[in-house]
Amino acid sequence: MPEQAVLLDVRTPAEFSSGAIEGAKLIPLDQLLPKIQNVFPDKNMPIIVYCRSGVRSSQAIALMTQLGYTQLFNGGGVGALALQLQKKIITSC
Asked: Which residues are catalytic, by number?
């Protein structure tokens, strides 16, 4: 996965607030289509998509591919991805 990639969390707001990778942007899967192009207008930007286990991130990647995004990476679950990237998981109070 590219080091300069941005992180996209497609879990629910409640899941995100209970622990997310530092610097990640939240767009829940059910809000992806109306919001993704405003949050990430550059369709060639490398984006690592993650969720709790990798299922929703796979669905998000399929939707984003249909919209023309070209550099998408399935990060799988939040915990394993944070370890792999050596990033902190932060919680919002």
From this structure: 51
Q: What is the pTM of this model?
A: 0.95
Number of domains in the chain: 1
Structure tokens at 89: 């998981």
pLDDT digits (tens, 9 = 90+) for 74-88: 999 999 999 999 999
Q: How far is CA 68 from the centre of its chain?
A: 16
3-class DSSP assignment, residue 62 = helix
> Going by C-beta distance under 8 Å and a sequence separation of 6 or more, which residues neighbour residue 54?
74, 75, 76, 77
By residue range, what is the domain housing residue 74?
6-90
Task: Tell how far CA 12 is from the center of its chain.
Answer: 11
